[in-house]
UniProtKB/TrEMBL annotation:
Miscellaneous information on this protein: In plastids the F-type ATPase is also known as CF(1)CF(0).
Key word Thylakoid present: yes
Compartment(s): Membrane; Plastid, Chloroplast thylakoid membrane
Gene Ontology molecular functions: proton-transporting ATP synthase activity, rotational mechanism
Record's keyword terms, sorted: ATP synthesis, CF(0), Chloroplast, Coiled coil, Hydrogen ion transport, Ion transport, Membrane, Plastid, Thylakoid, Transmembrane, Transmembrane helix, Transport
Superkingdom in the source lineage: Eukaryota
HAMAP family listed in its UniProt record: ATP_synth_b_bprime (MF_01398)
Coiled coil: 50-98
The protein's name in its UniProt record: ATP synthase subunit b, chloroplastic
Subunit structure of this chain's protein: F-type ATPases have 2 components, F(1) - the catalytic core - and F(0) - the membrane proton channel. F(1) has five subunits: alpha(3), beta(3), gamma(1), delta(1), epsilon(1). F(0) has four main subunits: a(1), b(1), b'(1) and c(10-14). The alpha and beta chains form an alternating ring which encloses part of the gamma chain. F(1) is attached to F(0) by a central stalk formed by the gamma and epsilon chains, while a peripheral stalk is formed by the delta, b and b' chains.
Source species: Lomariopsis japurensis
Entry GO terms, CC: chloroplast thylakoid membrane; proton-transporting ATP synthase complex
Topology of the protein relative to the lipid bilayer: Single-pass membrane protein
Length: 184
């Protein structure tokens, strides 16, 4: 039987094996070395490369899924924000309309109150005018009555004075005649 050293390689082959080495200088690499390196890299690196690519693919897919989920969430939030904005616009429009309606109502109420006040003042003025007119008419009536009474009294006095004067004259004439008749 052969020894292990004989089976593995003959001593003359060791010098040949010592001369085989891996040349890393890219400019001095020949085609065989290049194919050998690429083959080794492909054989051993294939699993690593496949794992790397699969991991990278999963990472990219997870990133895309996360981005799609964030996009959906952002779209939902945007839609909700648009709905809230539309509701806010509607509410603002209602408030504006209610404000304008309230303003119109208050304006009408103020105009009505001013009209009522004006009517009250007009009625008060008319009442004051009627009162003063009645008072003036009463004063004129009193003055007319007083003047009429004074004139009537003066006229009566003057007639009475004339009649009294005539009677006195007649009386005196009658006295003179009676005295004349007695003396005759």
């Amino acid at each position: 039987m052969r020894s292990v050293s004989e089976i593995a390689a003959a001593p003359s082959d060791w010098t040949l094996a010592a001369s085989i080495h891996l040349n890393t200088n890219i400019l001095e690499i020949n085609l065989i070395n290049l194919i050998l390196v690429l083959g080794i890299l492909f054989y051993y690196g294939r699993g690593v490369l496949i794992n790397f690519l699969e991991n990278r693919e999963r990472t990219i897919l997870n990133t895309i899924q996360d981005a799609e989920e964030r996009y959906k969430e952002a779209s939902n939030k945007l839609e909700k924000a648009r709905i809230r904005l539309q509701q806010a616009k509607i509410k603002a429009n209602e408030i504006r309309i209610n404000g304008l309606t309230q303003m119109d109502r208050e304006q009408r109420d103020l105009v009505d109150a001013a009209d009522e006040d004006l009517k009250g003042l007009e009625d008060s003025k008319n009442y004051a005018i009627r009162f003063e007119k009645q008072r003036a008419i009463g004063q004129v009536r009193q003055q007319v009555s007083r003047l009429a009474s004074e004139r009537a009294l003066e006229s009566l006095n003057s007639r009475l004075d004339n009649q009294l004067h005539l009677r006195m004259v007649d009386y005196h004439i009658g006295l003179f005649r009676a005295m004349d008749n007695k003396s005759d």
